[in-house]
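Before drawing any conclusions, I looked closely at one protein, both as residues and as discrete backbone shape codes, quoted below without any editing:
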Amino acid sequence: MIASQIVQDLYELTQENKRGVEVYAEVMDHLARCENRLDKTEAGAFLDSEGSVAERQARAKLAAAEARLERDLAKAQVERVRAKLRAIESAIMASATAAKMVQAEMKL
């Protein structure tokens, strides 16, 4: 691997990492909104229900099933973005190591 290619790879990975951080912020915002919607839906359904506490909780959980699914999907999306960011960071470290090896070879 030549030095110019390593520099190019590092630049591209750094740019991708910056975009990834922005995407991470967006998916975290989406997750927070989903959790808020779930809490509101579940609490509203609980308050609107009648019966024992267990019955009210069951009805609230059922009423909030769609919001819970959306929240769970948002959590999965956050985890995918985290995994991608970790992979990018690993690639950056590998490229930086390669750059140091090329630099050491040039000194010889």
